[in-house]
Amino acid sequence: MSTRHDIRAAARLSVAPMMDWSDRHCRYFHRLMSRRALLYTEMVTAPALVRGGAVHLLDYNIEEHPVAVQLGGSDPRELAAATKLCVERGYDEVNLNVGCPSDRVQSGTFGAVLMRDAPLVADCMAAMKDAAQDIEVTVKCRIGVDDQAPDDVLPAFIETVAAAGVTRFTIHARKAWLQGLSPKENRDIPPLDYPLVHRMKEAFPDLHLSINGGITKLDDARAHLDVMDGVMIGRAAYHDPASVLLEADQAIFGDPAPARSAHEVVEAMYPYIEAQLAQGVRLHSITRHMLGVFTGRPGARKWRRILSEGASQDGAGVALLAEALSHVPDHVPAS
């Protein structure tokens, strides 16, 4: 099990918090591919935890460490109470979402809209820091929102929030447009500005800064790590996890242990799946996160089809995965 103090080492490569995707089943699957990368929960709102009592949203498996929880909110006292709940459950880090552009998030006055109110974010982080004891509290933000000028806004935001004691930021290298673009469009349409994020590392050399947005390959991650302290990968780690995570420990962390194959990872999921099924979890809830593991490989389409069609059926279990796996050649000759 990873200990809390190695969180910064793990943050060299992290898998982004992704709503409806990075749940506990997904994280367990990803952890079987990389022992070292930092994994994030989906965003959990502070009101859901503190007012709604939905502490089951914080459930995770001990094997997921190092694992960070991302909170959404804008009330310092409520975020402090939520942070305390996260720390009690043993998370390695508590992160505040200052990047999500969805309407639902805006209506709750959290997410990317908070880029407009750095002093409020600083107050939130100070309260979270007090509640977190020795656990690190961090921020994930954008480079700006709407018609803000990122060259001015981002450094001012970082400076203000860092003054509250925050020493780690993950910066999504795009603006968020709160009006006129959907959350999906906000992940693609605003242009990436990697040079700006790199300049933040020059401007704030004592802070631990990670870069996020549009990074899909380990080679690209390594190039960013020439400048940045960490790289966060989102959708590519979900849709094509094998290409991002299977070699990550070797390529990013210098781990000498050999990487698992995708087949080995699938088979290593069997005991976990059987245990979850015994607790009443549906197979589809787990296998939906595994559909992309053979992306680009012979047999991938058959693998996806068998799982997509069969995993929701009553009684579906590990035998269905074994059948799907039998259609994917174990050793593919180099092309």
Automatic annotation (TrEMBL):
Cofactor: FMN
UniProtKB keywords: Flavoprotein, FMN, NADP, Oxidoreductase, RNA-binding, tRNA processing, tRNA-binding
UniProt entry tagged with the keyword Flavoprotein: yes
Gene3D superfamilies: 1.20.120.1460, Aldolase class I
Sites where the protein binds FMN: P17, M18, M19, Q70, K140, H172, N212, G213, G214, G234, R235
Domain DUS-like FMN-binding: 15-320
Site feature location: Interacts with tRNA: N97, K184, R187, R301, R304
InterPro entries noted in UniProt: Aldolase_TIM, DUS-like_FMN-bd, DUS_fam, DusA, tRNA_hU_synthase_CS
Reactions the enzyme catalyzes: 5,6-dihydrouridine(20a) in tRNA + NAD(+) = uridine(20a) in tRNA + NADH + H(+); 5,6-dihydrouridine(20) in tRNA + NADP(+) = uridine(20) in tRNA + NADPH + H(+); 5,6-dihydrouridine(20a) in tRNA + NADP(+) = uridine(20a) in tRNA + NADPH + H(+); 5,6-dihydrouridine(20) in tRNA + NAD(+) = uridine(20) in tRNA + NADH + H(+)
E.C. designation(s): 1.3.1.91
UniProt-annotated catalytic positions: C100 (proton donor)
NCBIfam families linked to this entry: PRK11815.1, yjbN
Function: Catalyzes the synthesis of 5,6-dihydrouridine (D), a modified base found in the D-loop of most tRNAs, via the reduction of the C5-C6 double bond in target uridines. Specifically modifies U20 and U20a in tRNAs.
Family of this protein: Belongs to the Dus family. DusA subfamily. Belongs to the dus family.
Name of this chain's protein: tRNA-dihydrouridine(20/20a) synthase
Annotated organism of origin: Aliiroseovarius zhejiangensis
Taxonomic path: Bacteria, Pseudomonadati, Pseudomonadota, Alphaproteobacteria, Rhodobacterales
